[in-house]
Amino acid sequence: MGSAALFAQAPILNSHPSAQPTIFLDFDGQTLSGTSWNVNGPLYLGPSNMNNDQITEVFNRIAEDYRPFNVNITTDSSKYWSAPARQRMRVIFTISYEWYGRAGGVAYVNSFTWGDNTPCFVFTGLLGYNTKNVAEAGSHEAGHTLGLRHQSRYDPVCNKTEEYNSGNGSGQIAWAPIMGVGYYRNQTTWHNGPNPYGCTNAQDDLAVITKTANGITFRTDDHAATT
Amino acid sequence: MKILKSGALCVLLCFGSVCMYAQNEPLPVSTPDYNKPKLFADLPDKFTVDVKALEPLFDVEEGQSVNVRLTGPFNYHGTVVSKSSPKNFSTKSIVIKSTNRQGAVLTFTRTLNTDGTYSYIGRILSHKHSDAFEIEEEKGQYVLVKKHLYDIFNE
Questions:
Q1: Distance of CA B144 to the CA centre of its chain
Q2: Residue B18 and residue B23: Cα distance in Å, rounded?
Q3: DSSP string covering A174-224, please?
Q4: The pTM is what?
Q5: A105 has which bridge partners?
Q6: Is A27 left (phi over 0), alpha (psi -120 to 50) or beta?
Q7: Which A residues in the span 59-78 are in contact with B, Cβ-Cβ below 8 Å?
Q8: DSSP code string of A53-86
Q9: Burial of B154 from C-beta contacts in 10 A (0-12 / 13-18 / 19+)
Q10: Which helix (H) or strand (E) holds B18?
Q11: Which SS3 state, helix, strand or coil, does residue A161 take?
């Protein structure tokens, strides 16, 4: 995982610094109070235990997932605090999972717009500090805070076969939806597919992310369509 | 020397096994349990709530007990387990763990808007039960709306 010196200060990274809506990737630990996570009092969350190279890769992967949107993915807490209170989310990457239980991550749906600094979590140790898996969980949990449910899979007669659609294929061209489970496929994207509530309940991830309440719009296409 | 060599080989084999096990440890992906028991089956799906009447909750200290009348049939008794930082002037939150709805936690938050008015949000939920309530603003008043747990929380 790297030497202690590499944990000293996470690199300051911003994907789209001019955007107001902000998703802050917090790797250095946090003390939490006054949120719906504080069922048993204050939470003292340890750091991610990932080195700067790993943090940078996680950042780059999550930034790529959110590239279509006017949202700043950042590792700079000052960007979080200067963002509008109802257009920001802190994703806490932490080794501390015992207070919750075993999961890759956890989030409150729509909490991006709550305005009360409720964060979401990624439990880095349970993901083996694997940068791809940690990044997948980060994009996934941030997606929940924007209002996304899971992308599920159903059989031809509408029986749910997977709560988390695990995607298709193998090798470089394997794919899974980000709001399914992307740990095992090389490529992951946003998706328009059935959510957990029924095979005809389609969730258009792009539409949910850009719903008015989130204040997130699509970035201008730098290469216009041609006829 | 033979013993040393055998010992070293043993250590190497054990280390290799541990590494392989670590690599093969399944990743934590758990399917939600949609059949958890309900906690609020006796309550209506929606009712109005007087958020102004809840304002005094922000002055209750951690560890103190409270009795909150949310609506006619719904009295919420509990203990304050957490509050937001007093340094945050624009947001006040209080977290109350229930003693009469076991497992439930009420979180009530007031935020200061840019125009000087206040907005309120909150929820009452238990991760061990399938139903929950969320405070929403509707046509100028606040209501508690019953929801499924996984409408509010997800892994």
A1: 16
A2: 9
A3: -EEETTS--TTSSEEE--EEE-TT-TT-EEEHHHHHTSGGGT--BPPPSS-
A4: 0.91
A5: A122
A6: alpha
A7: none
A8: HHHHHHHHHHHHHTTTBS-EEES-HHHHHHS-TT
A9: buried
A10: helix B2-24
A11: strand
Q: Is A49 left (phi over 0), alpha (psi -120 to 50) or beta?
A: left
Query: What tokens does A187 get?
Result: 């490529």
Q: How far is A38 from chain B (nearest CA, A)?
A: 6
Closest by CA position to A23, among listed A67, A48, A49, A36: A67
Report residue B143: phi and psi, to 5°. Answer: -130, 150
Between CA A129 and CA A123 the distance in angstroms is: 9
Contact A110, A62 (CB under 8 A): no
Residue B14, classed as helix, strand or coil, is helix
Amino acid present at B74: F
Helix (H, G, I), strand (E, B) or coil at B30: coil
Tokens of A215: 């204040």
Residue B28: list chain A partners with CB under 8 A.
102-104, 123, 126-127
Q: What is the pLDDT of residues A59-97, one digit of tens each?
A: 999 999 999 999 999 999 999 999 999 999 999 999 999
Instruction: Answer for the pair A62, A93: CB distance below 8 angstroms, yes or no.
Output: no
- Closest alpha carbon to A124 in A110, A107, A105, A111: A105
Contact B81 A102 (CB under 8 A): no
Mutate to test the interface with B, among A116, A129, A195 (most CBs of B within 10 A): A116
Picking from A124, A62, A55, A60, the residue whose alpha carbon sits closest to that of residue A93 is A124
Question: Tens of pLDDT along B7-35?
Answer: 666 666 655 555 454 445 678 888 899 99
Torsion of CA B143, A196, A132, A111, to 10 degrees: 0
